[in-house]
Amino acid sequence: MANSLTNMVGDYLFEQRIRTDGASVESLAVRIAPLFEQADTEALHRQLTASGGELGGRLLVLDKTGKVQVDTYGTLNGTRIDAPEVANVLMRGDVADYGVHALNDEGGIKSNKNFLFGSAGDSTWVSYCTAGIISQSDVIGVLLLASPVQTMMSNLYELRDQMLLLFIVVAAFAIIFCLIFSQIITKPVSALTRGIQSMARGDFSTRVQIQGSGEMRRMARTFNSMSEKIESLDQARNQFVSNASHELKTPLATMKIMVESLIYQPEMETGLRTEFLGDINREIDRLSSIVTDLLTLVRMDVKDVKLSRENMSLAAVVKDTEHLLAPLCEQRNQTLTLSLQDDCDMYADRTKLQQVVYNLMENAFKYTQEGGTINVSLQHVGKNAVLKVQDNGPGIAAEHLPHIFDRFYRVDKARSREAGGTGLGLAIVNQLVVLHGGEIHVESEVGKGTTFIVEIPLHQG
Q1: For 249-267, what is each residue's pLDDT tens digit?
Q2: Which end of the chain is more exposed for a tag (fewer CB within 10 A), N or C?
Q3: How far apart are CA 414 and CA 285, in angstroms?
Q4: Residue 456 has what pLDDT?
């Protein structure tokens, strides 16, 4: 690039020189044509000597064969000049020509101008400007002006060297800048790649440092959010497997003990045997209930549960559930109060909403002390039906509330099993409410009871 730019500058300078020398040499060739034709050597030499001083160079007159007839320096008379500028006038018929040459030690042309290699001091640089000497439309000779251009060539080479140095410095800075900039750009990408590879190996706790700006920061935040969710899901899966294994193992272990007792005590009393068989039957029922609930949750997870919607009244569902649970309420000497302020007609799945209401009310009866009070209210608030199931039981501690809808989560494990629960009821209730586009949350305080609040849109798509 430095050489190309230098050549452009050189060409511009040469053009200026050509216009100056060319016009003078052509004019002089016209003036000396009669003298050369008449072979007036002395007059021709005087004219050339005077003009050479004005032009600042050496003037030579060559005949049609390229041989020097007159030389203002007087050293090349009778020698042949093999220069392309002379040949172009004599052979091709050009009116004038111009060229720059490096001369060797003997004065011969060494090469054409080349700014890419070498330096101005390596050679003697001259410019050749030629013009045809014409008589009666015939070229009878050539006028050659040889001018030294050493200073101009030195300046061009110096310019080339400075530009070359400048380009090297700029290129070095550009390379360093690109390396630094690429490191800045690729560092967060590399960190993100390492994080993804770490996650691929099973380390879901991987987080990347949020750095950079714009898209890189958003990518890092998105990755960390995704990693956090995957870790949470993995922990939930492991906890679920652990809890499910424990819940299934407990009734199996109980049944194994009772079956072994029956096997190794063949003379067991009839009444005790019947009691053992009844316990085994209840454990089988419990095991079946757990498996059924698990299958229900799995179908919900894979979106395999479809709602059989129909026009229905949520108030009617609450009344039906009250009737079903009346024996349990009487057995525990509890008081149930209904406050149904609206029918809350909606287009929904009656069976699944009845399961929601039944599970919430049954839990209220089971986990409230005997003689306790359960209040169930239903009202139309905005676009939603709001169902509240409130009891005055022992309540739930604040640290348990965020996990109350987790699968197999029990606030009081021993008491829950005694009540016959599987630990999946509230998880199923939460999923069924979400399927209807609703929300469920819980409010509780230890010693003051618990309230479950369900909000379900009345108009669903």
Answers
A1: 777 888 888 888 888 887 8
A2: C
A3: 18
A4: 92
